[in-house]
Design brief:
CATH architecture of the largest domain: 2-Layer Sandwich
Distance between the termini: 33 Å
Number of domains: 2
Strand content: 25-35%
Shape: elongated
Number of helices: 12
Structural class: alpha+beta
CATH class of the largest domain: Alpha Beta
Oligomer: single chain
Radius of gyration: 27 Å
Length: 428
């Protein structure tokens, strides 16, 4: 028979000594010592020691490590220094037998490279370091949603199959859609702007797609983005929202995820605040002092950002970019039309988020499209919403995967994504 679990391992306490329990999990280790065996049983919540004696011990020959079992037994005192109590097994049933040898070692005694681990990702989840990363990711998502909801943002879900380029750019995946050409959305930008008409403050946490031939530790073809848009806020306001969101993620996980931090051997420390705010022009001056040949209007290359990041370690906002480097929907500064009301959130050289104040005047928006060589007719569905009374609004988009790498001190986003997609990886 298949036993129904009565407890997760984490729910067991010394108060249950003498009580019968039924556990379910996988065998992490199995040591046979004559007429007695010691099983280390693990489930998602924790680990426990199981003592097997007598006839039950004689029948353990066919049980491999990592096999899934159900164990009925009695909680009893133990002499082990590693456990507060142990379980004396009365019955054991193998529910799912594991082959031997396994393609990766979930315990981590034998290290596997990241590609091998990704090829066997489900088994990799039994590695406690890997599992802890995704438990942390779960907590980060909970924190983000809680904080945004408290700030009166409403969660929305926008289409991922769209009929035209959402931001007028390249790097889009195209697909055949019932005889028409469709695209996978690279951001919710236009839809979230439209939602400010009635909902005012909105956010979305979802996957988006970008057809970039990038082979770095920070780029993916499918990535999770955290986006907000807020009516009656300017770019300073939404920068404040972003900063408070990041700080709350660090604060929440540092206080509530100590066990996971120990598993990944990384202490989560709350970053200093407020985050420094530097302008694009300041960056140009800093780069020139370092001997870089760069002028106003030039984009900042990765090599430039590494220099800036060295000068400004940790989190900082990089503000007031030239208008020529920004998308058509970004608004210029009143005092200098060559500069935009925009920002990036950086962690050293790593860009985490980008945002700004948007244009909300439909006539100016149409002219901006033309200036950037885009056809307003292709944005007709979007532009018409601006004729219905569009409030001034601002917003940003942040890469969740990149934020996770800063949180846990890992520099490869593939470590924090279940099944990463990049130019070389489409499976499993």
């Amino acid at each position: 028979m298949v036993f129904v679990k009565t407890h997760d391992i984490s729910e067991l306490t010394t108060e249950l000594i003498g009580k019968q329990v039924i556990l379910g999990g996988w065998i992490e280790d199995l040591r046979k010592l004559g007429k007695m065996s010691f099983i280390t049983l693990r489930d998602v919540s924790g680990i426990s020691q199981i003592i097997v004696k007598g006839e039950l011990n004689d029948n353990l020959a066919d049980i491999n490590r990592q096999s899934v079992v159900s164990i009925k037994g009695t909680v009893q005192e133990t002499k082990s220094r590693d456990f507060a109590f142990e379980i004396k097994a009365d019955e054991i049933e193998v529910l799912g037998k594991a082959v031997h040898p396994l393609p990766v070692d979930p315990i981590g005694r034998l290290e596997s490279n990241i590609d091998t681990r990704l090829n066997h990702r489900a088994l990799d989840m039994r590695n406690q370091k890997t599992a802890s990363i995704f438990k942390l990711r779960h907590q980060v998502l909970q924190s983000l949603r809680k904080t945004l909801s408290e700030k009166k943002f409403i969660e929305i879900t926008t289409p991922k199959i769209i009929g035209s380029a959402s931001e007028g750019g390249a790097d889009l995946f195209s697909l055949e859609y019932f005889g028409k050409t469709a695209y996978l959305a690279q951001s919710p930008q236009l839809y979230k702007e439209q939602m400010t008409i009635g909902l005012e403050r909105v956010f979305e946490i979802s996957n988006f797609y970008r057809a970039e031939h990038s082979h770095t530790g920070r780029h993916l073809s499918e990535f999770t983005s955290v986006d907000i848009e807020a009516a009656f806020m300017d770019y300073n306001d939404v920068m404040n929202v972003l900063e408070s969101l990041v700080l709350e993620v660090y604060k929440f996980t540092s206080e509530n995820c100590k066990k996971e931090g120990e598993a990944i051997e990384h202490e989560i420390k709350i970053p200093p605040s407020p985050f420094e705010r530097i302008t694009y022009m300041q960056c140009i001056e800093e780069l020139k002092k370092e001997g870089e040949k760069i002028e106003f209007g030039d984009d900042l290359l990765d090599s430039h950002l590494r220099i800036i990041g060295k000068n400004h370690p940790g989190f900082f906002f990089l503000m007031d970019w030239p208008m020529k480097l920004k998308p058509f929907y970004i608004r210029e500064k009143d005092e200098d039309a060559t500069l935009s009301r925009s920002f990036d959130l950086q962690y050293g050289y790593l860009e985490l988020a980008s945002g700004g104040t948007r244009l909300h005047n439909p006539e100016i928006l149409r002219n901006r499209l033309i200036e950037q060589g885009l056809n307003p007719a292709q944005f007709a569905d979007h532009l018409k919403t601006f004729d219905w009374g569009m409030p001034p609004h601002s917003g940003w988009g942040m890469g969740l995967d990149r934020l996770m790498t800063t949180l846990i001190g890992i520099d490869n986003v593939r470590e924090v994504v279940l099944y990463p997609r990049d130019p070389d990886r489409l499976s499993p």
